Write a sequence for this structure.
């Protein structure tokens, strides 16, 4: 695993190869953050990545949100998630659900998508399945702007944990 000093020394393509996965299927976040090197520490790098995401237009932010797989969704059932997503869903206990729990989450996912036009995002590694279900029940009543903002905030948490996984602290 690279140290921050090593990341700071990478050319653009190598930097994106290392960090492109921090934002699901959205390597443009790392790509557009690269010119701001050097980063002082993990907090600085994470803040810069998040600022890139925040500065992007609403269309690209929406595409980023939509790039996330449903929790306990079809891709998860078919083992077709990225390695990170597989780990995240397992950390929340979503790989150990009873059939009725899968059905309940899938019903809530579908209702959420129908209402907001993007999937339900929560940082699965920071929430176990009961907290995820409770959040799904509560957040479906919010307005779309609130949920859009919540999704971006959860994506920042997901990216932070992924960054910590791939950065060697000296
Ligand atoms: N979709 C909703 N939450 C998550 C998460 O924590 N990780 C991934 N990969 N997808 C999600």
């Amino acid at each position: 695993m690279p140290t921050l000093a090593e990341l700071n020394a990478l050319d653009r393509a190598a930097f994106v190869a290392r960090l492109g996965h921090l934002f699901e299927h959205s390597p443009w976040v790392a790509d557009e953050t690269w010119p701001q090197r050097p980063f002082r520490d993990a907090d600085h790098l994470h803040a810069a990545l998040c600022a890139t995401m925040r500065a992007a237009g609403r269309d690209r932010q929406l595409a980023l949100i939509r790039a996330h797989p449903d929790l306990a969704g079809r891709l998860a059932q078919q083992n077709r998630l990225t390695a990170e997503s597989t780990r995240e869903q397992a950390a929340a206990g979503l790989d150990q659900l009873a059939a009725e729990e899968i059905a309940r989450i899938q019903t809530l996912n579908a209702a959420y998508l129908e209402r907001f036009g993007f999937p339900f995002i929560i940082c699965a590694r920071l929430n176990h399945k009961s907290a995820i279900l409770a959040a799904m029940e509560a957040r479906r009543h919010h307005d779309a702007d609130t949920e859009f903002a919540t999704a971006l905030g959860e994506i920042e948490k997901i990216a932070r944990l992924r960054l910590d996984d791939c950065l060697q602290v000296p």
Remarks:
- The pocket of guanine is lined by residues 24, 68-69, 71, 85, 88, 121-124, 158 (CB under 6 Å).
- The chain has two domains: 4-63, 69-155.
- The radius of gyration is 16 Å.
